[in-house]
């Protein structure tokens, strides 16, 4: 099969924060790391602190280091009851203080950047495919990643990658899904996203070959 370029999966948050003693996003990504994404995909996992300034430095450095085909950020949502695919990231409205009691003076990710950036991934298609796969994990979609570090990280990554990023919110552990179920869901989601990218690239190559 065709060799895929490197795929990097981040956990958008890690360790306890707020009222969450255990961050389900990091636990889920660790399960994904155990499962892997198949022989054709190099998977790299990183912890991204719940800090605006850390995101500003770390996310660009990882893109520069790996030049990945896709980055999938994973974060915890205390309100979620499903695994949620975020369609877009937002540039403005960051008023919440991070773990260092800091927020950007501009309250935005990229000054002068567009208000919203959509992922190039067809989240509707991913959601339908994974929901029909029989994993036993409910998957839904959202257009609002929350205007906190999850949204901030997502927009930053989308801006750098021109849309070649994705964000997945997971619910707290055992509310209702355990670590293994979340890991399997992430595996199915990321594999489907990568397949969509490969198909899109093959279509472009075919069009160029016949032009």
From TrEMBL:
It is found in: Cytoplasm. The keyword Heme does not apply. Gene3D superfamilies: Peptidase C15, pyroglutamyl peptidase I-like. Its EC number is 3.4.19.3. It is an enzyme of class 3 (hydrolase). GO terms for biological process: proteolysis. GO terms for molecular function: pyroglutamyl-peptidase activity. Its main location: cytoplasm. It comes from the Eukaryota. Pfam families: Peptidase_C15. Belongs to the peptidase C15 family. This is Pyroglutamyl-peptidase I. It comes from Paramormyrops kingsleyae. The gene is PGPEP1.
């Amino acid at each position: 099969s065709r060799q895929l370029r490197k795929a990097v999966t981040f956990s958008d948050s890690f360790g306890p924060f707020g009222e969450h003693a255990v961050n389900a996003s990091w636990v889920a990504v660790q399960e994904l790391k155990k499962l892997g994404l198949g022989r054709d995909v190099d998977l790299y996992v990183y912890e991204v602190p719940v800090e605006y300034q850390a995101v500003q430095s770390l996310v660009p450095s990882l893109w520069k280091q790996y030049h990945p085909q896709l980055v999938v950020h994973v974060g915890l949502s205390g309100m979620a009851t499903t695994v949620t695919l975020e369609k877009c990231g937002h540039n403005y409205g960051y008023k919440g203080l991070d773990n260092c009691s800091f927020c950007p003076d501009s309250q935005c990710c990229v000054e002068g950047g567009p208000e919203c950036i959509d992922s190039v991934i067809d989240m509707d298609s991913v959601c339908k495919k994974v929901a029909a796969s029989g994993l036993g994990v409910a998957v839904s979609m959202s257009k609002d990643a929350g205007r906190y570090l999850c949204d901030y990280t997502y927009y930053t990554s989308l801006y750098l990658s021109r849309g070649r990023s994705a964000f997945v919110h997971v619910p707290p552990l055992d509310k209702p899904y355990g670590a293994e179920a979340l890991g399997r869901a992430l595996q199915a989601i990321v594999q489907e996203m990568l397949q969509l990218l490969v198909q899109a690239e093959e279509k472009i190559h075919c069009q160029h070959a016949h032009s």
